[in-house]
Write a structure and sequence with these properties.
Blueprint lengths: L1 E7 L1 E6 L5 E5 L4 E7 L4 E3 L9 E3 L2 E3 L2 E3 L3 E7 L4 E3 L2 H8 L4 E2 L9 E5 L2
Antiparallel strand pairs: 1-4, 1-12, 2-3, 3-10, 4-9, 5-8, 6-7, 9-11
Length: about 110
């Protein structure tokens, strides 16, 4: 899975050695937004005794992929967050959720996970 990360009112303050980037909240309005890829799929349900649509002799079932999800957290001035999975969990844990997940994201960073 790839986790997208966006932020506003935060600055890059360095890294841990030659490792991951560290962000610091520059105001009490700082926000970090975590973007998740689609998590599920809706599939066509057929009534008993009915069959799927045939297209060129192939059975076709309708399905639809969900959209991405975004969760935003308010961070207090001075709060530091390391851009790793562990750092994001520690930095955002216990923080107030924000209603600004739509649109208000600054720089982007992708965090591939296993």
């Amino acid at each position: 899975m790839v986790l997208g990360v966006g932020w506003s009112d935060m600055q890059v303050v360095g890294s841990v050695g030659s490792g991951p980037t560290v962000l610091e909240a520059t105001s009490d309005q700082s926000v970090i937004v975590l973007g998740f890829p689609p998590q599920h799929m809706a599939e066509q349900v057929l009534a008993t005794g009915s069959g799927p649509t045939l297209v060129d002799g192939l059975r076709v079932f309708q399905s639809r992929l969900a959209g991405p999800s975004r969760v935003a957290f308010h961070l207090p001035r001075g709060r530091r967050v390391t851009l790793t999975v562990e750092g994001l969990l520690a930095g955002c844990g216990g923080r107030r959720l924000s209603g600004v997940a739509q649109g208000r994201t600054g720089p982007r960073w992708s965090c591939p996970t296993g």
